[in-house]
Amino acid sequence: MTTASAPAPRALEHVEALPRYVTAAPAPAPDAVLLASNESPFDPLPSVRQAVIDGSARLHRYPEMHSGQLRAELGTRLGVRPERIVVGTGSVGVLQQIFTAFARAGDEIVFPWRSFEAYPILAGACGATAVAVPLDAAGGIDLAATRSAIGPATKIVLLCLPNNPTGTMPAREAIAEFVAAVPPHVLVVLDEAYLEFTGAGDETIGLLARHANLVLVRTFSKAYGLAGLRVGYAVAPADVADALRRVFLPFGVTALAQLAALASLRAGDELAARVAAVVAERERVHRLLREHGWRVPRSYANFVWLADPGRAAPIGDRLRESGVLTRVFPGEGVRLTIGTPEMNDRALAALSGVRPR
Ligand SMILES: Cc1ncc(COP(=O)(O)O)c(C=O)c1O
C-alpha cells in the first residue's frame, strides 16, 4: 500500500543524467521536405514491399531469434562465417549490445566528437564514461588524439566512418594504422552506417582477419532504405559475436525486418543505382554550396555539413520556414541530408538567401 509521504521510485542517477536523443521535428506542412535524419528519399522497392506483405501471413509466429537466414546470406556475400555476424534492432541496437557486453561503470568508451548522438547515451546507459575527443578544425576525425585518449580504463574505442554529422572520413591507410595501434585488449568498433556512400568498397572486412579486437557495425537503414524496420548487424570475431548474442533483446528483430533485409540484399543492383544517384546529388549540392561560399567539408555519406557555429539555429529556422527539415546542432552547424534533386533544390533555394560567413 502506498502512502502520500512514501517516495516514488526513482531511476538510477546515471540514467536521469542521460542526454535525450533528439528526433526530427514534426513536418510543418504536408509537402515538407524531410532532410533531417539521413534516410533514403526513395519509396521502398516493390520487391521489398512484397516480401513484407508475404511475411505478414505469419505475424502470429515469433521471428527467427538470431536471423539465421539473413546471417547466412550476409556471410556468403561478405566472405565470413555466419557465427561472426550478429543482427540487431538497427545498428543502434547492435551498438547497445556491444556497449552492454563490454563496458560498465568505471570503464571508458572513447570516440571522436561531434559524432552520432546515440554514442554518449548508450555509453551512459551502461554506466560507462564517454571520453569525447574533439574533431579537428575541419570537422575531421583526429586519429592521433583518439589514440592518445585510450587509457587504462578504456574498454571500447569507436570511430564513425564516415563521421555523422560532418561526413568526413580519414584515409583508408590511416584507419588501418589506427586499428593496428590500439592495444589488443581494447575493442575497436567501426560504425559504418554510411559505408555504401563512401565509394570505397568493402575494405574494412579485410582488416577483420588481422585483428581479434575489431568489430564492424552496419545497417539496412540508410543505403538500403529500411530505417522504419530496424535492422542492422555487426561483423565480429566469433567470441565477441557470441557475447553480443547473449545480451540481445530476445526476438528483437522482427520477421518482417529480416525478410525485407533479405529481399534488399537480392535487389543489390537497384539499390546500388539509388546510392549512385544520392552520391551524384551530394557532389552537386556540395559544389553549389561551396560556390555560394559555404564551408562544407567533403562528404563521404548521404549528407553534408554546414559549419556555422554562430548561426546554426537561425539557418535551421529559415530552412524550416521554407518547408525543409534538417538536423540543427545549435552552436555548431546544420546537417543537410541529401534527397532527390527536387528536394535538394528546395534546400538550396532556401539557403541562397543566407550569406555564408
Ligand atoms: C553513424 C550512425 N550509426 C548508427 C545509426 C543508427 O542507425 P540504425 O539504428 O537505424 O541502423 C545512425 C543513424 O542515424 C548513424 O548516423
UniProtKB/TrEMBL annotation:
Keyword Amino-acid biosynthesis: yes
Domain of life: Bacteria
Catalytic activities: L-histidinol phosphate + 2-oxoglutarate = 3-(imidazol-4-yl)-2-oxopropyl phosphate + L-glutamate
Cofactor entry: pyridoxal 5'-phosphate
Pathway(s) served: Amino-acid biosynthesis; L-histidine biosynthesis; L-histidine from 5-phospho-alpha-D-ribose 1-diphosphate: step 7/9
Domain Aminotransferase class I/classII large, first and last residues per copy: 31-351
E.C. code: 2.6.1.9
Keyword list, A-Z: Amino-acid biosynthesis, Aminotransferase, Histidine biosynthesis, Pyridoxal phosphate, Transferase
Family: Belongs to the class-II pyridoxal-phosphate-dependent aminotransferase family. Histidinol-phosphate aminotransferase subfamily.
Quaternary data: Homodimer.
Protein name: Histidinol-phosphate aminotransferase
Gene that produces this protein: hisC_1
